[in-house]
Amino acid sequence: MLRHIRLWAMVGSVLALISVHAAAQSQPEGQLIIAFDTSIAATYFDPAETAGVQTPFVFLYALHDALVKPLPGNDQAPSLAESWTESPDGLVYEFTLRQGLTFHNGDPFSAEDVRFSFLRYKGTSAKLLHERVKAVEVIDAHRLRFVLYEPWPDFLTFYATMATGAAWVVPKKYLEQVGDDGFKRRPVGLGPYRFVRSDPGVELVLEANERYWRRVPSIKRIIFKGVPESPTRLAMLKTGEVDIAYLMYREEAHAIQKDPALRLVRSMPPVTWYVDFPEQWDPKSPWHDRRVRLAVNYALDKQAINEVERMGLGRLTGSIIPRGLDFALALEPLPYDPAQAKRLLAEAGHPNGFDAGDLTPLPPFSTMGESVANDLAAVGIRTRVRTMERAAFLSAYREKKLRGLILNVTAVLGNAANRIETFVLSTGTYAYGGYPDLDDLFRQQAVERDRGQREALLHQIQRLMHERVMHAPIFDSVPLHGVGPRVEEPAVGLNPLLYFTAPYEDMRLKRP
Predict the structure, then answer these.
(1) How far apart are CA 400 and CA 55, in angstroms?
(2) Are residues 26 and 210 in contact, defined by beta-carbon separation less than 8 angstroms?
């Protein structure tokens, strides 16, 4: 009997040791530092203010969670919502929520938080969402339904993708206690990492949420450092001060390729660079003349810019809507022809060119702005490259305060319709004007449930955009990032739609 007791005691001890070791293996360990490509704005921490670009999602993926979001292998993966249904008439969408989840502060997650977050949302396409959704009805703690005024084929595109931040959930109770400003100072979410502290604009410190539903993160602490200058990000990567440096181009990308201790990784999101003409709606502006806008398209040496800025990895395009998006119309770029650009300028009354004022690139891509400015100067269009902080740029863009030319890049997810809604319609968040016929075609497609008919309408809009030269497309881009020697899995490219590291819980450091 004693021998049996000792044997079972030994077995129990071994099992206990194995259990302790397994638990230790699953505990988050270590620290990883990411050099973010611009200053870190507090507005990025609040889903309600998501600006229709991917930048805020860099932080939302860490701090917060959504009903549905892109995850590896599924561009529309169930997250906080385990499942959802659409009624046969297209008027009701019902979501069943994941149970047993709590926010970082311990508050339980419920359908009321989802309803509160939707009603509170004021970012890109908020007006459209709130106009089309008749009611958000809480059925019980883990079920709710969205009721529409009329069938809207793109409801899930605008609500349950990263086209907006409306499906990202914040805690109602906590937010009502601290208010909007208090929430930005100390955000609370459902994501794989919780907020520790922030030095506004400079640094954000996060720690692993060991209760995260999908997977316990393997890395204990992640630190984001706002570093707008790419040479500085490269230097920090080389010295080991940071482990990942976002957006490495030109000389920095080549330097990483030549360094055996570093890796250059890339993703393939739907990212398109183009020149926007915000003054094309002003009859007194040179940009009101289609020939002047067309001259810009001929003046840009798109392939040379691609080679210099993206190592030739981008794909030249004639549209601001990437071919990989649903309902996109493939349009070839106009050729590089500076002589034709000069002829068009002369026909428009500018034989010696003209002073076009500011050329404002999306921060921090000033070198890209210089490349565009040089090509324009070669045909007589003189510009001044204006540098701004990204948050200020996005705010000025939305508020229609930018003049001259805007060099923009967009990675808005969804399909061709939500790109058009954001950048082309007269009511678009980043549109400074529009055309009544395009607005009317858009309204028609928005309620068209026949896919073929809808595609025809969206293609017609894109052809008219092209014929009217509303933009000067350059190329579909390829974001490149530098990765240091301590990182085993940077989680870049696991989600093809995203340019940044995601999901954060899939990141891994190398074991010593």
Answers:
(1) 20
(2) no
> Are residue 94 and residue 225 in the same domain, yes or no?
no
Asked if 307 and 420 sit in the same domain, the reply is yes
Q: What is the pLDDT of residues 307-357, one digit of tens each?
A: 988 888 889 999 999 988 889 999 999 999 999 999 999 999 999 999 999
Q: Give dist(CA 338, CA 335) in Å, integer.
A: 9
**Domain boundary pick from 141, 171, 201:** 171
How does pLDDT run across 227-280, given as a tens digit for each residue? 999 999 999 999 999 999 999 988 899 999 999 999 999 887 888 999 999 999
pLDDT at 4: 44
Give the pairing of strands 487-489 and 508-509.
Answer: antiparallel
Tell me the whole-structure pTM to 2 decimals.
0.79
d(CA 80, CA 97): 6
Q: How many CB atoms are closer than 10 A to CB 387?
A: 13
Which residues, 6 or more positions from 443, have their beta carbon under 8 angstroms from its beta carbon? Answer: none
Query: Is the model's pLDDT at 11 over the cut of 50?
Result: no
Looking at the fold, whether 114 and 243 belong to one and the same domain comes out as no
- 58 in a domain, yes or no? no
Q: Are 93 and 201 part of one and the same domain?
A: no
Residue 323: what pLDDT?
85
Residues 86 and 154 grouped into a single domain = yes
**312 and 446 inside one domain:** yes
What pLDDT, in 10s, does the model give residues 81-134? Answer: 999 999 999 999 999 999 999 999 999 999 999 999 999 999 888 988 999 999
Cβ(233)–Cβ(252) below 8 Å: yes
Using an 8 Å Cβ cutoff, are 508 and 216 in contact? no
Taking 50 as the threshold, does the pLDDT of residue 284 lie above it? yes
Longest CA–CA span in the chain (Å) reads 106
Q: Does 80 share its domain with 211?
A: no
36's CB contacts (< 8 A; 6+ apart) are: 58, 224, 225, 226, 227, 246
Helix (H) or strand (E) holding 119: helix 111-120
DSSP assigned state of 118:
H
pLDDT interval class at 223 (50, 70, 90): very high
pLDDT at 51 over 90: no
Specify whether 284 is located in the same domain as 366. yes
What separation in angstroms does the CA of 246 have from each of 33, 259, 439, 488, 494? 11, 17, 37, 16, 16
CATH number at residue 412: 3.10.105.10
Look up the CATH number of the domain holding residue 89: 3.90.76.10
Domain that holds residue 356: 272-476
Q: Pull the structure tokens for residue 479.
A: 């974001």
Please state the domain count of the chain: 3
Do the beta carbons of residue 111 and residue 88 sit within 8 Å? no
Cis previous bond, 364, omega within 30: yes
* Residue 265 placed within a domain: yes
Given this model, what pLDDT does residue 55 score?
87
Identify the H or E element spanning 111. helix 111-120
